Amino acid sequence: MIRPVPHVADMAAYALADLGDPDIISLAQNESAFPVSPQAILAGQKALDQMPLYPDPEWPEMRAAIADVHGLAPQNILCGAGSMELIGCLIRAYAGVGDRVLGTDYGYAYIASATAQVQADYVKAREIDLTVSVDDILSTVTPNTQIVFVCNPGNPTGTLIANSELIRLRENLSSDVLLVVDQAYAEFSDVVENPKAIFDLAARGDTVVMRTLSKAYGLAGARAGWGYFPAEIAHEVRKLLNPNNISIPSQAMAAAALRDQAHMQNVVQQTAAIRDRFAADCRELGLTVPQSHTNFALLRFENVKQAQEADAALRANKLLMRGMGGYGLADCLRATICNEDVMRRCVTVLREV
């Protein structure tokens, strides 16, 4: 028998959502409820005749669009097949056996999986009221901590901490600890917290900021993400990125979607309006729903049994939310925001539980 290396044999596979039957409506993967920018679709179609070619490994149009939209230096932008690729490369570059990677109670679960791949230890700092606590992160740091990950806004909680708290965290971490701010949902919170203050942290040389086009831009299927890096860290991570990692159509679609800010902002506004109405309806049913700054809402039930009954009732009505047992929140379901009709159907089902 051909055996894998021991630490891989001991790992569990990264858990994706259970999508159920083919005819079920999924509210489980935080995909966009709205179509992609028409300009992005057109750009992708125009790029199809280039399929015999390898993609440009420098992502020139995508990089330029990111830089223009956010006022960033293009040479400090790296693009990945979703932000997952960049997260994995960062951990492989800066953590190994005996090191610690520090996240929070309800941080992005893939970070734990990527940490296990390099045989480092993944440790979680406590969150308070489903919200990142800078003081708890700082008290959990040890001399072996190499990387601190903060997901802001949080997933699966949807909660947000202020830029001032992230800056306080950075100022109180040692300069040899890398801070990674995962902002996969930040387009939904940029109206609350100006993103420039966090991007500016990269100039210190010890902070990376991650974003994706999978959520607000609706390009989950294109697998296009990006990060803003200090030059020295970008140099090391680049060694580990797959060359030609984003397809030609995906790069074209990403660049066009980024340049269509009006479309993205309209999606964010519509999503937020539906989300807030849905959250208010769920609170009227007696559920606890933290204020969300994302394209989903976390529903907390009275107990685990009630959450399971709600999940079963939703499935019986061809509606699928994401169970949160893997995050230690077995009394919760996470609902991706879909169109208004779907969210009303969910409320109708939940009212009978």
From TrEMBL:
Gene3D superfamilies: Aspartate Aminotransferase, domain 1, Type I PLP-dependent aspartate aminotransferase-like (Major domain). It comes from Roseovarius albus. Keywords: Aminotransferase, Pyridoxal phosphate, Transferase. This is Histidinol-phosphate aminotransferase 2. Pathway: Amino-acid biosynthesis. It comes from the Bacteria. Its EC number is 2.6.1.9. Belongs to the class-II pyridoxal-phosphate-dependent aminotransferase family. Histidinol-phosphate aminotransferase subfamily. GO terms for molecular function: histidinol-phosphate transaminase activity; pyridoxal phosphate binding. PANTHER family: HISTIDINOL-PHOSPHATE AMINOTRANSFERASE, HISTIDINOL-PHOSPHATE AMINOTRANSFERASE 2. It holds the Pfam family Aminotran_1_2. Its cofactor is pyridoxal 5'-phosphate.
